[in-house]
Amino acid sequence: MDKDRLGRRWLLLVSAIFLVLLLVTLACEEEVSPFTGVPDLYQPINGEILAVQSPYFDWSDVDEATRYHLLVRSSDDYTPWIDKDKLTESDYQAIEVLAGGNYQWKVRAGDNTYWGHWSATWEFTIQ
Question: What is the pLDDT of residue 23?
């Protein structure tokens, strides 16, 4: 085999390996959101004990947010009880009936493309 053919094969092999590594790297990278707004939680207050089973949730507006994602889950087994990712307002009156127990809740804001970071996680108890 002449040196030119061997050199071309070597170049082709190195190029193929580089392409595969590039594709694997791109596939494994987590998409970083340019959306930076994070809501502040208002209600229910962290540690609050509620007598109602369908609580009202309220958090701060975030500049340029077009949607909010509310997640409420059991503190005992982390089962999601409320998972609403298409909210357009910065509050939510639950229509779901929560059983007595301990819960955690958090919110994130987003624009039409990206989600921002989650808020702090607060806890409340339903009697």
Answer: 65
Q: What is the 3-state secondary structure (H, E, C) of the chain?
A: CCHHHHHHHHHHHHHHHHHHHHHHHHHHCCCCCCCCCCCCEEECCCCEEECCCCCEEEECCCCCCCEEEEEEEECCCCCEEEEEEEECCCEEECCCCCCCEEEEEEEEEECCCCECCCCCCEEEEEC
Highest CATH level, class, for 41-126: mainly beta
Q: Rounded to whole angstroms, how far apart are CA atoms 59 and 98?
A: 20
At residue 22, the pLDDT reads 62
CA–CA separation, 66 and 87 (whole Å):
9
Positions in the chain short of pLDDT 70: 1, 18-33
* pTM score, whole prediction: 0.73
Domain regions of the chain by residue span: 1-30, 41-126
Integer Cα distance of 84 and 73 in angstroms: 12
